[in-house]
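> run fold Gamma-glutamyltransferase
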Amino acid sequence: MPTQKTAVVRAAGTAAVLAVLTACTGLPTPAASTFPTAAQSSTTTSPTPEAEAPVSDSALKAHGVSAAHPAAVEAGMTVLERGGNAVDAAIATAFAVAVVEPFASGIGGGGSAIVAPTGGQPRAYDYREVVAQNGKIPPSGTGIPGFVAGMAALHDDHGQLEWAELLQPATTLASEGFPVSEFLALRMRSDYGPGAISGQDQFKGWGGLFALEAGDELVQEELANTMTTIAEDGPDSFYTGKIAEQLEAVDGIDADSLAAYEVVRSEPARGDVGNYEVVSAAPALPGVAVIQMLQVAESLGIAESEPGSADYVEKLSTGWQVADAAVTAELGDPAFVDVPVDELTDPARNAALATNVTASPAPGGEGDNLAAAAKLVPGNTTHITVVDSDGLMVSMTNTITSFWGGSDAQVVGGFFLNNQLSRFDALDTPQNQPAPGRRSVSWAAPTVVLDDQDRPVLGLGSPGGHQIPNILANVLTRWALHGQPLADAVAAPRFHLQDGQLTVEEPPSDDLADRLEELGWTTDVVTVEEAIFGSVQALEVDHTTGEITGTADTRREADFIVGPP
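> ok
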């Protein structure tokens, strides 16, 4: 695990990235934001965060950023060092990730976030894509993007620096370029990558014949111009201005639907696990599933099971079976259907469920299930966790859904559009049906853990698609119930049970293999390059010492920096 000191030194040695990002240091002195968020792009479903978030009475000795790419981490740290808070830094980091990971998230997509002040009430923000006002889903699955509106709503509620200042690091990365990473190079050559970058000369070298390779410079001038417009003309330019005019040419996007887009502020899902309270994304996202999975596994006695053992894997997977069934039966957009959040996250109810549940055998019977188990789909999205010296924590997951926005990848203004509405078909249940302005059930679950004084002590999240609840539950079980260090919990092997098949990162031990045979489950061992098990971005806060701890998930190219305020 990198220490705080080595994290700062490593980042400081990235001269090329620093040279790009420090170009923004000539901006005006930071001041409180005066930019108004358009009424059409924001709505509040519960009291405003300002009324519930008291100022922290004790400062931390550090602040930190954890994100999917070192350059994006630098962007967030630049904002913190200029006097911005955790929300400012998360916004800057999110725009920077959109530049350096164009396959994973961006202004053509959406996302969600948890904002948790020390001693105050956490607030959930949902700025995911929605169905157009005509209620139709285009063949591409493209929904009305919410990313820009979401960043604007967060800035309007919490921001301290000027809006344009927060976009400057990302704009500079896009216009001046950055070295292509190994993971970006892999994504350009894998699954939807070749089709997505076809016709996009910025991703090509050798006279436009071949995709750029790791180490080559990627310059995205059109994306830089788009971000400059958003910075100078404000977020409304995306929904009713210059950029909106470009978007209207895309099947599934129209002027009325763009103008009608609304961000949802709501109460997050909450539930007790061990000595903590887990706070996660509100429906139609699966925060309730993460909490229910943990509570069922805890009631089954997973705290007494050796992490990684056959008993541990069985109990966590049993919790997942309960939670996955609840997602299918209950989860949907709460603006359209009732979701029993309190029931799904009730420890007593889930303890009662645990007494009557056993690990289900594979469908089709023992030895007959291999054909029934589908290969897991690589998990897109990206996650950001930020903590400032006041203890304000942001856990944010953004996405364009499938890598590059799917097989029908579309590009407007230098950015890729989402295929989020494909999630209605992926989970075709009575609770999850398309309608004008409706959000689909999906798997992103930005999460914050609170201590007994309502202070955020851990923020985490991950890409990974359907695997996200299992990824987070494995880390949280190890950290919260077994007391493992964060670095060990994040590095530990991951697994996911689906249709009687346990997908794993390494071959099972003898005891696990024997138990899987008894259960009739098959196994599938996947490689890191398949990108099945995401990349956890997490920061831990010790309010007694004032220290922040991070760790870099080596499954991708994630990084973190913790430094003095």
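The radius of gyration is 22 Å.
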